[in-house]
Amino acid sequence: MDVVDDWRIHLSASSRERILGKILETLKRVAPHRPEEFHAVESIARRFEGNVYNSATSQ
């Protein structure tokens, strides 16, 4: 794969935050929770996004 065409090196922090927001929206929709549990749900979403990003950038 040509490094110039690699989308992973062009993914900005704002793009990752947008992706995280979409993950959170999905989790809220499919896994109902109490408002006081939001921090735990957000933590799970951040770890998941980080794992996906790390996996994608290490290939």
Automatic annotation (TrEMBL):
GO terms for molecular function: transcription coregulator activity. It comes from the Eukaryota. Residues 5-59 form the Mediator complex subunit 15 KIX domain. InterPro entries: KIX_dom_sf (IPR036529), MED15_KIX (IPR036546). The keyword Nucleus applies. GO terms for cellular component: nucleus. GO terms for biological process: regulation of DNA-templated transcription. It is found in: Nucleus. Pfam families: KIX_2 (PF16987). Keywords: Nucleus. Its main location: nucleus. This is Mediator complex subunit 15 KIX domain-containing protein. The lineage of its organism: Eukaryota, Viridiplantae, Streptophyta, Embryophyta, Tracheophyta.
